[in-house]
Amino acid sequence: MNLTKCPNGHFYDGDRFSECPHCLQTEFQQTEPLSGSMPFASSQPVIQSQPMIQPEPIRQPEPVRQPAPSFIPQAADEGVTIGQYQRILGVEPVVGWLVCVKGEYFGESFKLHGGKNFIGRASDMDIILGLDKSVSRNRHACVIYEPRSRVFIAQPGESRELFYLNDDVVLDNVKMKAYDVLLIGETKLMMIPCCGEQFSWDELTDK
Q: Which of 1, 12, 120, 131 could form a Cys-Cys staple with 125, CB 3.0–4.6 A?
Protein backbone atom coordinates (compact mmCIF):
# COMPACT_ATOMS: atom_id res chain seq x y z
CA MET A 1 0.00 0.00 0.00
CA ASN A 2 1.42 3.34 -1.06
CA LEU A 3 0.06 5.82 1.52
CA THR A 4 0.04 9.23 -0.08
CA LYS A 5 -0.95 12.66 1.37
CA CYS A 6 -2.59 15.25 -0.91
CA PRO A 7 -1.97 19.00 -0.59
CA ASN A 8 -5.30 19.30 1.23
CA GLY A 9 -4.12 16.91 3.95
CA HIS A 10 -6.05 13.85 2.81
CA PHE A 11 -4.39 10.39 2.93
CA TYR A 12 -5.12 7.85 0.20
CA ASP A 13 -3.71 4.73 -1.41
CA GLY A 14 -1.42 5.89 -4.17
CA ASP A 15 -1.44 2.43 -5.78
CA ARG A 16 -5.19 2.61 -6.31
CA PHE A 17 -5.74 6.29 -7.02
CA SER A 18 -3.68 8.61 -9.10
CA GLU A 19 -5.31 11.61 -7.40
CA CYS A 20 -6.84 12.18 -4.01
CA PRO A 21 -10.28 10.57 -4.07
CA HIS A 22 -11.44 12.77 -1.21
CA CYS A 23 -10.76 15.97 -3.11
CA LEU A 24 -12.36 14.58 -6.25
CA GLN A 25 -15.46 13.59 -4.29
CA THR A 26 -15.72 17.10 -2.79
CA GLU A 27 -15.48 18.76 -6.22
CA PHE A 28 -18.05 16.34 -7.54
CA GLN A 29 -20.52 17.17 -4.76
CA GLN A 30 -20.07 20.90 -5.36
CA THR A 31 -20.65 20.71 -9.13
CA GLU A 32 -23.38 18.04 -9.46
CA PRO A 33 -26.08 17.11 -7.01
CA LEU A 34 -26.51 13.51 -6.17
CA SER A 35 -28.96 11.61 -8.28
CA GLY A 36 -32.35 11.45 -6.61
CA SER A 37 -31.42 14.02 -3.98
CA MET A 38 -34.11 16.46 -2.84
CA PRO A 39 -33.62 20.16 -3.55
CA PHE A 40 -32.81 22.34 -0.61
CA ALA A 41 -35.97 23.49 1.15
CA SER A 42 -36.52 27.21 1.33
CA SER A 43 -35.81 28.75 4.68
CA GLN A 44 -38.91 30.96 4.28
CA PRO A 45 -42.14 29.45 5.59
CA VAL A 46 -44.79 28.73 3.00
CA ILE A 47 -47.90 30.76 3.63
CA GLN A 48 -50.99 29.16 2.25
CA SER A 49 -53.67 31.53 1.01
CA GLN A 50 -56.82 31.45 3.07
CA PRO A 51 -60.26 31.91 1.45
CA MET A 52 -61.84 35.32 2.13
CA ILE A 53 -64.62 35.19 4.67
CA GLN A 54 -67.56 37.36 3.71
CA PRO A 55 -69.03 39.27 6.68
CA GLU A 56 -72.59 38.38 7.51
CA PRO A 57 -75.10 41.11 6.58
CA ILE A 58 -76.45 43.17 9.44
CA ARG A 59 -80.04 42.28 10.06
CA GLN A 60 -82.37 45.21 10.55
CA PRO A 61 -84.75 44.85 13.47
CA GLU A 62 -88.30 44.11 12.41
CA PRO A 63 -90.71 47.01 12.95
CA VAL A 64 -92.95 46.71 15.92
CA ARG A 65 -96.52 46.39 14.79
CA GLN A 66 -98.97 48.54 16.62
CA PRO A 67 -102.18 46.84 17.63
CA ALA A 68 -105.23 47.90 15.70
CA PRO A 69 -107.44 50.33 17.58
CA SER A 70 -110.35 48.71 19.31
CA PHE A 71 -112.61 51.61 18.42
CA ILE A 72 -113.56 53.51 15.27
CA PRO A 73 -112.80 57.24 15.56
CA GLN A 74 -115.70 59.55 14.88
CA ALA A 75 -115.66 61.83 11.87
CA ALA A 76 -114.06 65.21 12.56
CA ASP A 77 -116.36 68.25 12.77
CA GLU A 78 -116.14 70.04 9.45
CA GLY A 79 -117.03 73.35 11.07
CA VAL A 80 -120.19 73.82 8.98
CA THR A 81 -123.29 74.85 10.88
CA ILE A 82 -126.57 73.53 9.46
CA GLY A 83 -129.45 75.99 9.63
CA GLN A 84 -132.89 75.20 11.00
CA TYR A 85 -134.61 74.92 7.62
CA GLN A 86 -131.70 72.95 6.17
CA ARG A 87 -132.04 70.34 8.92
CA ILE A 88 -135.75 69.98 8.20
CA LEU A 89 -135.89 70.31 4.41
CA GLY A 90 -132.38 69.15 3.45
CA VAL A 91 -131.77 72.45 1.62
CA GLU A 92 -131.36 76.08 2.68
CA PRO A 93 -134.54 77.70 1.28
CA VAL A 94 -134.78 81.37 0.41
CA VAL A 95 -136.61 83.60 2.90
CA GLY A 96 -136.27 86.85 0.93
CA TRP A 97 -134.04 88.95 -1.30
CA LEU A 98 -132.01 92.14 -1.29
CA VAL A 99 -132.36 93.82 -4.68
CA CYS A 100 -129.79 96.43 -5.70
CA VAL A 101 -131.50 99.68 -6.73
CA LYS A 102 -128.30 101.76 -6.85
CA GLY A 103 -124.63 100.93 -7.24
CA GLU A 104 -122.35 98.50 -9.05
CA TYR A 105 -124.91 95.67 -8.80
CA PHE A 106 -127.89 97.62 -10.07
CA GLY A 107 -130.78 95.27 -10.95
CA GLU A 108 -129.22 92.20 -9.33
CA SER A 109 -130.68 90.28 -6.38
CA PHE A 110 -129.04 88.57 -3.41
CA LYS A 111 -130.75 85.65 -1.68
CA LEU A 112 -131.42 85.77 2.07
CA HIS A 113 -131.56 82.61 4.18
CA GLY A 114 -132.80 81.97 7.71
CA GLY A 115 -130.60 83.28 10.52
CA LYS A 116 -127.81 85.83 10.00
CA ASN A 117 -126.79 87.10 6.56
CA PHE A 118 -123.47 88.95 6.69
CA ILE A 119 -122.73 91.62 4.07
CA GLY A 120 -119.20 92.57 2.94
CA ARG A 121 -116.63 92.38 0.14
CA ALA A 122 -114.93 89.09 1.21
CA SER A 123 -115.70 85.90 -0.70
CA ASP A 124 -116.96 84.11 2.42
CA MET A 125 -119.72 86.66 3.08
CA ASP A 126 -123.35 85.66 2.56
CA ILE A 127 -123.93 88.76 0.40
CA ILE A 128 -120.78 89.75 -1.49
CA LEU A 129 -120.40 93.37 -2.66
CA GLY A 130 -116.86 93.01 -3.95
CA LEU A 131 -117.11 95.79 -6.56
CA ASP A 132 -117.99 98.50 -4.00
CA LYS A 133 -114.67 99.48 -2.40
CA SER A 134 -116.47 101.63 0.17
CA VAL A 135 -117.95 98.48 1.72
CA SER A 136 -115.93 96.83 4.50
CA ARG A 137 -114.36 93.52 3.62
CA ASN A 138 -115.83 91.55 6.52
CA ARG A 139 -119.26 91.92 8.12
CA HIS A 140 -120.06 95.54 7.32
CA ALA A 141 -123.72 94.83 8.10
CA CYS A 142 -126.07 91.97 8.90
CA VAL A 143 -129.66 91.14 7.94
CA ILE A 144 -131.39 88.54 10.13
CA TYR A 145 -134.51 86.49 9.49
CA GLU A 146 -135.93 85.12 12.75
CA PRO A 147 -138.27 82.23 11.81
CA ARG A 148 -140.26 82.01 15.07
CA SER A 149 -141.39 85.63 14.95
CA ARG A 150 -141.20 85.74 11.14
CA VAL A 151 -139.43 89.09 11.18
CA PHE A 152 -136.45 90.62 9.39
CA ILE A 153 -133.93 92.60 11.42
CA ALA A 154 -131.12 94.94 10.38
CA GLN A 155 -128.14 94.61 12.72
CA PRO A 156 -124.76 96.40 12.88
CA GLY A 157 -121.88 94.25 11.73
CA GLU A 158 -118.38 93.98 13.18
CA SER A 159 -116.98 96.75 10.98
CA ARG A 160 -116.22 100.29 12.19
CA GLU A 161 -118.09 101.61 9.15
CA LEU A 162 -121.76 102.62 9.42
CA PHE A 163 -124.76 101.72 7.28
CA TYR A 164 -128.29 103.10 7.02
CA LEU A 165 -131.88 101.88 6.88
CA ASN A 166 -134.20 104.31 5.10
CA ASP A 167 -131.52 107.02 5.64
CA ASP A 168 -131.35 106.40 9.41
CA VAL A 169 -128.09 105.08 10.83
CA VAL A 170 -128.35 101.56 12.27
CA LEU A 171 -126.73 101.39 15.72
CA ASP A 172 -128.91 98.62 17.16
CA ASN A 173 -131.31 95.93 16.02
CA VAL A 174 -134.04 97.44 13.84
CA LYS A 175 -137.05 95.55 12.41
CA MET A 176 -137.43 95.70 8.67
CA LYS A 177 -140.51 95.60 6.46
CA ALA A 178 -141.07 95.05 2.75
CA TYR A 179 -139.37 97.56 0.43
CA ASP A 180 -137.12 99.04 3.12
CA VAL A 181 -133.82 100.26 1.65
CA LEU A 182 -130.36 99.63 3.11
CA LEU A 183 -127.47 101.95 2.20
CA ILE A 184 -124.15 100.12 2.60
CA GLY A 185 -121.18 102.05 1.23
CA GLU A 186 -122.32 103.30 -2.18
CA THR A 187 -124.79 100.44 -2.67
CA LYS A 188 -128.54 100.61 -2.01
CA LEU A 189 -130.38 97.34 -1.40
CA MET A 190 -134.18 96.98 -1.23
CA MET A 191 -135.55 94.21 0.99
CA ILE A 192 -138.14 91.93 -0.67
CA PRO A 193 -139.51 89.30 1.76
CA CYS A 194 -140.59 85.80 0.86
CA CYS A 195 -141.44 84.63 4.37
CA GLY A 196 -143.58 86.65 6.78
CA GLU A 197 -147.11 86.77 8.10
CA GLN A 198 -148.53 85.32 4.87
CA PHE A 199 -146.00 82.48 4.43
CA SER A 200 -143.36 80.46 6.25
CA TRP A 201 -141.54 77.24 5.39
CA ASP A 202 -142.64 75.89 8.77
CA GLU A 203 -146.20 75.67 7.44
CA LEU A 204 -145.07 73.18 4.81
CA THR A 205 -142.85 71.10 7.09
CA ASP A 206 -145.58 70.74 9.77
CA LYS A 207 -147.90 68.95 7.32
A: 120
